[in-house]
Each structure stands twice: as C-alpha cells, then as structure tokens.
Specification:
Blueprint: H1 6-21, H2 37-44, H3 49-55, E1 58-71, E2 74-81, E3 84-91, H4 92-95, H5 97-104, E4 111-120, E5 126-137, H6 153-158, H7 160-166, H8 168-189, E6 194-195, E7 201-202, E8 214-217, E9 222-226, H9 231-239, E10 244-252, E11 264-273, H10 277-296, E12 300-303, E13 306-309, E14 314-317, H11 318-324, H12 336-340, H13 344-359, H14 372-383, E15 392-398, E16 414-422, E17 425-432, H15 437-450, H16 461-468, E18 474-480, H17 481-488, H18 515-518
Helix pairs in contact: 7-8, 8-10, 8-17, 11-14, 13-14, 15-16
C-alpha cells in the first residue's frame, strides 16, 4: 500500500526510531485519564486565573496534537479529543530532559498523555501546566494542512477519519445524527413498541420495488439477496402477536448514486396493529415534530435558502398536489376530476412536456403501456415533489404502484397510502397494510408477470402463508434516516451524513509498495 507524502513518512519513521532509542514506547497499551479534554473545557472554561491558582486543579488527560510551538526550553501545543481542544505548556526544568526531548521529537497528529494542573496563561487561555508527558501513538502521516483543513470533497469522503479531525462541523453532523436516532428510539420505546432485528439476507427479494444485490451461500448452495426492505419480516412478527414493532435497519439497493441516494442506507421501519394510514399520519407528525424540537431546539429550521416550519403540516392528495403546484406557464391548471378520468394523466404529461421542453427542464418519460396510475405518479414527481418545502403529507396513491397497500373501499383505483416531504425531500412512506392473502397473492403474481430487474422473481409463499394465519388491521411506515439527517443538519448531499459512503475505487498508485517494503 503506497503512503503519501513519502518524504514525511520517512522523516517520521526516523523520529520513531529516535524515540525508541530514548526508551519511549510509541504504542503503549493504555492511559488512564482523570478527565477528557471536552470535560475540562466545559467544567473549567469559565474559571478565573485566581480560582485556578488557589485550587491547583490536578488533571490527567490524553489527546491528539493539533498545534505545536517550540520556544527554546519551553513550548506550547493544543490537544484535541472528543470535540474539545485545550492548550498545554511544557517546560524543560519541570518535565526533565528525557520528557522534553520527547516533546521536541513530537509531530502534529501524535497522540500524547499529560499530567499536571490547570492554569491560565498571560493571554488568559485555559491551559495545562505539564509535569509528566507520555507518548501514546506516533503518527506516521501528517494531518491535512492546518489552516484550511480537509477541503477536497472526494478525499473527505474516502478518508472520513481526517475529515472528522479537521472539520468540526462534520463531527457535529454525526453527533446530531446519533441524537436523531436516540430521539426516535425514545419515542417508540415510550409507546410500547418492541425493537427487533430481521434478516439482512433474503432468499426472495421483497418488501419494496428495487434492484437487489445478489450473493451466494456456499453451504446451502443458494443465491441470497441483501435486504432491500424489512417489511415482509416485520409484518410476519405482527402476525405472531408483536402488535407494535420497529427496526432501525440497513438496506441495500443496487441503484445509482446521487445527492439523495446511496446503495447502502438506513431506514426506520415500524408497524402498529389495529391502526390505519390516517392514524399513522398523526403519529408521524408527532414523531418528526418532536425529534426536530428535541435535536434542533426549535420546530423551525434552516434548509438551504428556506426555513422549514414543523409546527405547520399540510395534507394533500396526489392529484390535489399536481393541481396546486402546476406551472402556470404550462397552460390551464388541471382539476383532480380531470386527472381521475381515463387518459387524463397521460394527456397532462403531454402538456407538461411541451412546456418543460421549451424551458429546458427534465421531461416526464412515459414507458409504453403505462397505466393511468403510473402516469399520475410520474406527473406528481415532476410537477410537485420539489415544491414540497414545508412539511407535507401526500396521500391517495394509485393502486398499481402500491402492491402492498390496502385499497380504498370507495375507490379501488387508489390505496390508503401516504408519503411525507419536507425541504423538497421525500422522507417517509406509509400505508394501511394489505392483509387479504388472496388479493396479496394476486398482486404479487401480477408484479412478477410484469417483469423487470426491480421486482421479485418468484412468489413469497411463506409470506402468503403468514397472511393466511391472519394479519390484523395494521399500518406500517418507513422513514429515511439519512435524508432526515440531511434536513436537520442543513446538508445537501446524502454522502455528507453517511460516515463512509460508497465511492468508486481509487485510481491505482504508481507503486503498490510501501516505503517499508522498499527497504527490504
């Protein structure tokens, strides 16, 4: 494996040998701290110079060197750990010659432990007066350029460890992501939901329309699919009497990469027996508004040039949304009744496309033989979706794009399904679950007959068998954790909220050998 930059790597290796010759172990097993850097800053950051001198607060802490300044027989450095940064002061006649020689050989990025007491410098900066110094890890490669941090976007994603060290705002995003997940768990745990785990390898891909990743189990000699959704397993659990279940799960879809899509992503999925989609909309509004308030401290948050207010939600049918957000320049605004007529959605796509072509916008491409329901959904996607900045529920989805949802009693062409949006992002999808086993089998077979890479290749008979044992009236929903985190951290690429997003392989280096190999 190549190491860059080579000259600095070799220089630091030389220092490593000098440290070993002086009797310093560059990789000791442990270091016991009395405080973390962040704890000291939080607890003593407001303490006056007189108070610190009177109390002589002893400390023992560890951190990574982020700045280093030698001044003859003394020097300063800043240690960083757990998001905090603290200055240390090292003086030859206090620590002794051996420890000061260690200090002289240190580089930016090295991890050290110090023991001493707190004081304030002449410039009133809280600092540690070091009495003992210990090397904990020698860094053999330099940190990113100290004043500008890590700015190359691709490098930030590939080497997230450097991104976290260099950019505090990146660390803050992932701390907030953890807070979002804690708040979600607290919400469901407080409502008698049971957190469960379901398989990540499925014999039959199902639970969503997506192209799966395929793997092979050697012992059983069968192909398996990485989970595209946990839905069918979670509903089996409801059949088994677990009336309220949730799972925060990793899903895998063999699809393109964009600012809103990563092949591996995190979902919250939950199911509640004896409920329908309207009750779940109420629950979702309570969940999301509560999480935003808890994590962000307000129900109004910035997202790009907008302010998104989670104290105000709107609810629109899919047809109503198309009519509300229809571009005025594209001609007469259609009515929901017109969109409900046979051929109505396709005719309006034709009108939309004439306007879109003139404006240089994306066209709505209709595949041959597309149904009215498919065309309605396509029209919604192009006309309304990116206009949904404020929190919005969209309901009344077409049946033919919703194979797992229960149909409306008064209009079988529509199902009891919703999606919710904010900031122009689709954040979640929920519905009243189809629990009629014969109807579910019919829809599965129809889906398989249509074919394509994104539909199951065979019928999941075990799931049908589970439904035959009786799934109570149930509502279920999936919420995208990554997109929700994007919204709550004002991030505009999904890669910014995933610690290690999928990347193209790096270009091969000129040499595959490390400097250590070259010396052999």
């Amino acid at each position: 494996m190549p190491f860059e930059p080579l000259d600095q790597y070799l220089q630091r290796q030389k220092k490593l040998k000098e440290l070993a010759a002086l009797g310093h172990d560059p990789y000791p097993h442990r270091f016991v701290s009395s405080h973390t850097v962040a704890e000291i800053v939080d607890r003593y950051g407001a303490s006056t110079k007189d108070a610190l001198e009177a109390g002589k607060v002893p400390v023992r802490l560890a951190g990574r060197i982020m700045t280093l300044r030698l001044m003859g027989k003394a020097g300063f450095a800043h240690l960083q750990a757990q998001g905090g940064r603290l200055q240390i002061y090292v003086k030859l006649d206090i620590v002794g010659e051996k420890a000061f020689e260690l200090f002289r050989l240190l580089d930016l990025g090295d991890i050290i432990g110090v023991e001493g007491h707190l004081f304030r410098t002449k410039t009133d900066e809280l600092s540690v007066w070091v009495e003992k110094l210990t090397l904990l890890t020698k860094s053999l490669l330099p940190l990113p350029e100290k004043w500008h941090g890590l700015s190359d976007v691709e490098l930030r994603y590939r080497q997230r460890y450097l991104d976290l060290l260099s950019n505090k705002e990146v660390r803050d995003i992932f701390i907030k992501r953890a807070e979002i997940i804690r708040a979600i768990r607290s919400f469901f745990d407080g409502r008698s939901y049971i957190e469960v785990e379901t398989p990540m390898m499925h014999r039959i891909a199902g639970g969503a329309t997506a192209r799966p990743f395929i793997t092979h189990h050697n012992t059983l000699d069968i192909n398996l699919y990485l989970r595209i959704a946990p839905e069918l397993y979670l509903k089996r659990l409801v059949v088994g009497g677990l009336d309220r279940v949730y799972e925060i799960n990793r899903n895998f879809r063999n699809e393109g990469i964009s600012t809103q899509h990563n092949p591996e992503f995190t979902m919250l999925e939950f199911y509640q027996a004896y409920s329908d989609f309207r009750e779940l909309m109420d629950l979702t509004e309570e969940l999301i508004t509560g999480v935003v308030q808890k994590v962000c401290g307000s129900t109004s948050i910035p997202f790009g040039e907008h302010t998104v207010d989670f104290s105000k939600w709107q609810r629109l049918s899919m047809r109503e949304a198309i009519c509300k957000y229809w571009p005025a320049e594209a001609g007469a605004v259609p009515t929901p009744a017109e969109l409900a007529k046979p051929g109505g959605p396709a005719a309006n796509i034709e009108r939309y496309n004439k306007w879109a072509a003139a404006k240089g916008k994306d066209l709505a491409h209709v595949p041959s033989g597309a149904s009215d329901g498919f065309c309605t959904a396509l029209l919604f996607e192009h006309v309304a979706e990116d206009q949904l900045i404020q929190p919005t529920f969209i309901f009344d989805f077409p049946t033919d794009i919703s194979p797992l949802s229960k149909q409306r009693d008064d209009d079988p062409s529509l199902v009891e399904r919703f999606e919710f949006f904010a900031g122009g992002l689709e954040l979640g999808n929920g519905f009243s679950e189809l629990n009629d086993p014969e109807e579910q089998e019919r829809r599965f077979r129809e889906q398989i007959a249509r074919g394509g890479d994104e539909v199951p290749k065979e019928l999941d008979l075990d799931y049908i068998r589970a439904l035959c044992h009786g799934l109570p009236p149930t509502a279920g929903e999936g919420v995208g954790i990554d997109r929700l985190t994007m919204l709550l951290t004002n991030s505009h690429s999904i890669r910014d909220v995933i610690l290690f997003p999928l990347m193209r392989p790096e270009a091969p280096a000129a040499s595959a050998e490390s400097p250590a190999d070259e010396k052999k």
